[in-house]
Design a protein that fits this description.
Blueprint: H1 16-28, E1 42-45, H2 46-54, H3 57-61, E2 63-72, E3 79-86, E4 97-105, E5 134-143, H4 149-158, E6 161-169, H5 177-188, E7 193-194, H6 201-215, E8 219-223, E9 230-231, E10 234-235, H7 242-350
Antiparallel strand pairs: 1-5, 2-3, 2-6, 3-4, 4-5, 5-7, 6-8, 9-10
């Protein structure tokens, strides 16, 4: 039966108006107009992601509606988070953007703990106790929330996993994307080495979870399954330790206060400059004005340099991600070829 009903007597027939409305609803559910949140596919470190948010007022106003704790059901039981953001203008009119927050060692894995190619392109393996800890790579991955696009990406990246629990934030007290980015950057100032027993994906996901609960307590936690922040039944060290959570919260408050106070500090600085100009007279005022022009020029040049650097870092991050994907595909192909060879040999021996 057609999904488009005619306007007379409720008869079922094709409707141009209904067809166009359906097409409009599809595109309306898939906006790509908010940099860093509602945008095309990308993967960036949390620092670069924050730069994107600073570049767009709309991006910083996106609100975190839900946080989902995910755990792989194979290998080292890798853990990651899904962040559901609401559009700052259209709100419930469109699907939420679903971003993937992940911590991984910077080095690219060659195989996981069962000897087969790793499922995840990020950190689906553990660092051996005999290997010195490596630097971490905390990333935000964005995939358009169209149909099964997000689920397909998660399956390709992480293999089998389950959603253990989720946090739903009250509509009146949801963290903004900017506040989340400040938290993630504050957490990056904590120990930045990836080890088997500390500061790995399990520690990272649980710490983000507990800190958001502490900072934005007007939320509801739903647990579907246990095992959070655990690897083979062993709890990640210091993941929900009160001192650890409190230290991250303090760093967050320090950084957020700087952002909130920046406009007031700029206003005060401008007033002080104006008073000085009036006191020093017209001649000195002209000289000061020229200095301000020079300073503004330097700041503009520095801002342009930082933007170029951010673009370069984003390009490098994307290039690294593509290289990881390529290497994983090569490993999968080699593994499949070896399995085919062994299967053929076994069949010959059986004959």
């Amino acid at each position: 039966m057609s999904i488009f009903k005619g306007s007379k007597h409720g008869t079922n027939r094709f409707s141009i108006r209904g067809f166009l409305a359906a097409i409009f609803r599809y595109f309306k559910n898939s906006p790509e107009d908010v940099l860093g949140v509602f945008t095309s596919r990308s993967t960036n470190n949390v620092g670069t992601w924050q730069i994107f948010l600073f570049a767009s007022e709309l991006s910083s106003q996106c609100q975190l509606e839900r946080l989902v704790f995910c755990k792989c059901t194979h290998g080292t039981e890798h853990e990651f988070l899904l962040l559901h953001f609401r559009h700052p203008i259209q709100q419930d009119a469109v699907r939420p953007a679903i971003l993937v927050l992940d911590r991984a060692p910077c080095e690219v894995p060659t195989e996981n703990n069962n000897g087969s190619p790793g499922q995840a392109t990020q950190s689906s393996y553990a660092v051996s106790p005999s290997v010195p800890p490596t630097l971490t790579y905390d990333s935000i991955s964005i995939r358009p929330n169209n149909g099964s696009a997000v689920e397909s990406y998660l399956s390709r990246t992480y293999g089998q996993f389950k959603r253990l629990s989720h946090l739903d934030f009250a509509a009146s007290a949801r963290p903004s994307a900017m506040q989340v980015s400040v938290l993630l950057c504050a957490l990056s100032k904590r120990p930045s080495t990836y080890g088997l027993y500390q500061y790995q994906c399990h520690w990272y996901a649980q710490t983000v979870w507990e800190v958001l609960k502490r900072l934005f307590p007007d939320c509801h936690e739903t647990t579907k399954s246990g095992g959070r922040s655990r690897y083979l039944g062993v709890k990640a060290d210091k993941a929900d330790n009160a001192d650890n959570v409190e230290a991250v919260c303090e760093e967050y408050h320090t950084q957020w206060a700087r952002i909130e106070n920046a406009p007031e500090e700029r206003r005060k600085a401008k007033e002080a400059e104006d008073r000085q100009l009036r006191m020093e007279g017209l001649a000195e005022g002209r000289a000061q004005y020229q200095k301000e022009i020079d300073q503004a020029t330097r700041e503009a040049e520095e801002a342009e340099r930082q933007a170029d650097e951010a673009k370069r870092q984003a390009d490098e991050a994307e290039s690294r991600a593509e290289e990881v994907e390529r290497k994983l595909e090569e490993m999968r192909a080699e593994w499949q070829a070896e399995m085919d060879r062994m299967r053929a040999q076994h069949e010959r021996q059986a004959v």
